[in-house]
Amino acid sequence: MQPPKKIRLDKASKKLILHYGDAEFELSAEYLRVHSPSAEVRGHGIGEGTLVSGKMHVGIDRVASAGRYALQIFFDDGHDSGIYTWSYLRELCDTREEKWRAYLERLQREGRGRDPDESAVKFIG
Questions:
Q1: Full-prediction pTM beyond 0.70?
Q2: What is the CATH number of domain 6-109?
Q3: By C-alpha distance, which of 62, 105, 107, 67 is closest to 85?
Q4: What is the pLDDT along the chain (125 residues), one digit of tens a residue?
Q5: Domain residues of the chain, as ranges?
Q6: DSSP H or E run through 74
């Protein structure tokens, strides 16, 4: 898989913009963070991995190349262990709608949310 022709980090909108020969994609920091290819998120075996929640406000501090095959993303919550290969980045672009929908459904199923200030605890008064 070829790398994007151009990669731009827009810190203000918290998006990574990837320009390919056939298309341009904008991926939010939140989307990239919750789909990190790190063992912390994906898990070490077969399964759904760890559900990352509360990342609505996460941003990207910087990106760096990881050899000639990948991109390392440094998030402002301290997460930086995911190495996004060129093929995985393109997969995230091409399947963004379905991956995002599945993520939101899983959050709902597990009673979790995108907002870190949201509480899953219900207070009865």
A1: yes
A2: 3.30.2020.30
A3: 67
A4: 899 999 999 999 999 999 999 999 999 999 999 999 998 887 765 666 899 999 999 999 999 999 999 999 999 999 999 999 999 999 999 999 999 999 999 999 999 999 998 755 555 55
A5: 6-109
A6: strand 70-75
